[in-house]
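Treating backbone geometry as a discrete language has practical consequences that deserve illustration. In the encoding step, the backbone of a single protein was reduced to a row of integers, each denoting a local shape. The amino acid sequence and the backbone structure tokens for this protein are reproduced below.
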Amino acid sequence: MLRWQKTLMIILGLMAVSYLLFSGIILILAGRGKKPQLTLATTTSVQDSGLLDVLLSPFEAENRCRVKVIGVGTGQAIRLAKEGNVDVILVHDPPQEEMFVEEGYGMRRYNVMYNDFVIVGPEEDPADIKGGGEGVKALKEIATSKSTFISRGDDSGTHRKERELWRLAGIEPCGGWYIEAGTGMVRTLRIANERRAYTLTDRGTYLAHRKELDLTILIEGDENLYSIIPLSKEKYPHINYQLAMKLIGFITGVEGQDIIRTYGQKEYGQPLFFPLAISGLIEEK
């Protein structure tokens, strides 16, 4: 082999080694610079209220992490959790949550906050439900008058609450007056607004979007409880359990509860949610 060929091979070899070393350093630095991520599945009512933008920002800054939020109905959030696709869920359907924990999918339920479910509708109130006092009686009047009612129809916590009220009323809603939107709370409210119809909503989402709606609260008072649940670290060893527990500690602690307590007061004249407990723990049934 000629001298120039040997020299060329040495140069090419050194270049290859240098490239591998440089690539390794880049990968190490990239790994160091990458923030840990936590995936939270939550209800559209929480996401649409804007609360999470305010609540998660200080947590992310303090823990140098990123919280990826998936906003879906409670039923879908629980299904995503059962599939192991998230680390923690923030939902509002206590019976389903209890079953989720009892079946070993979640570790424990923690109190976060509450507001209430309300029935909203046009001010002219064609079914004359205003002042009736309770949701069951209101739904009976709506069904009797065949006034248009928009259901979320999406297996969310709000939809499950609506179905519970219909069951208590002894009515299986059907017919042209009953419309299942199959969508989130904001879109359902907009459809009700367009159709001059009634719908069941959580107070927080209604207040956050009240300015764009010509709907008024006609019935109020059914409690709407939100809980946060980390997935089982035994059943799902791949989840970021440690970071999930840090998030739960923040949300149910003094700082997180104070953010919840004050959120909405300045912009909407009243809080959208009420903190439930500093300790936050709901004992397993």
About this structure: The first strand starts at residue 37 and ends at 43.
